[in-house]
Predict the 3D structure of the following.
Amino acid sequence: MSPTVRLKLSAMMFLQYFVWGAWSVPLGTYLGGPLAFQGEQIGLVFGTTAIAAMVSPFFIGMVADRFFATERLLAALHVAGGIILFAVSLQASFGAFYAVLLVYALCYMPTLALTNSISFRQMSDPGQQFPAVRVLGTIGWIVAGLAVGFLQLEDTERPLQIAAAASIVLGVFCLTLPHTPPAKAATRVTARDVLGLDALRLLRERSFAVFVIGSFLVCIPLQFYYAFANPFLNEIGVDNAAGKMTLGQMSEIGFMVLMPWFLVRLGVKRLLLLGMLAWAARYVLFAYGDPGPAVWMLYGGILLHGICYDFFFVTGQIYVDTKAPKDLRAAAQGLIAFVTLGVGGFIGSWLSGRVVDAYVVAGDGIPHQWESIWLIPAAWAALVLVLFAVFFTHREQPDPAAEARAAA
């Protein structure tokens, strides 16, 4: 991979996640503030990306891999997405906002897989080269959060419009990426391939089935953070909440670098359990934190994001890759994404909104009883943690090369 190609792919990743971070982090504050949406409505709005995550594998399998060059498809999706996202910023009613954002999510979510795909196709050694490119995506998310927070735009429609403009810029930029023709242009598409039904046979193994069920259950309380952390911080009076939340992505980068070291010493099961424990601990810290003497608890909850995300999601992807036969790995990863980001994410988004609505406080003070709200996902994550610890089994397979690298 030439330096020019590396630079283009890095810029692509930066803009890809800048777009997502710019609109999604402050969205809950905007919806609950100027638009006065109810908690359940806010949760359903955040569930649009979960619906799109369930549809994306069908789109990628039936269309993207067979009929269009990846860079041209990315360009079309991002330009169209930018126009649609600008239209989202003009909506004030729940029905219209939800419908238009869902159309946008259906454009955006497939691009997550497509940007990975175009990167892998240009790399001679993806295992070594991809992390250095992908980390620019996390940096893009951080820059978006810092910009929105610094400019104090969290309770306005401006973040949506900034993301829309960046999406159009990214779409035009995608036309400069290396030509990447369809990977499976000559193959016949079957429903079985697109649905990834062959991966279902992995569920016959008890440990893999427990992993899938546990991952689904724990992804439900996870949505409380993504939908309501920013509104929570703003309601209790934390300045520049969007900017402070980028500390989570900074910790994500640090723990990602340390993942090989932790994986060798702790193994898959312990890392998954630590990831679940971190989610429960994060919500407890949010429940009892405040902008005054207990502000350290709020910072702690944000900084746990590295463990929450890397130890759970990344370790889970590694586990699936080791358990699935080579010819089923893509289907197995698709199955996990469908169950967690799709079904689990949708249920969690809706449920989190219902819980937030149940703890509305009348009067001129803080509009919600956040302590009670956060303790519910904390208890849920802790219960899943206990069940997972009891029923999940995994025999670690020593990797001498990995151990040597970690010791170096």
Observations:
- The domain at 1-192 is CATH 1.20.1250.20 (Growth Hormone; Chain: A;).
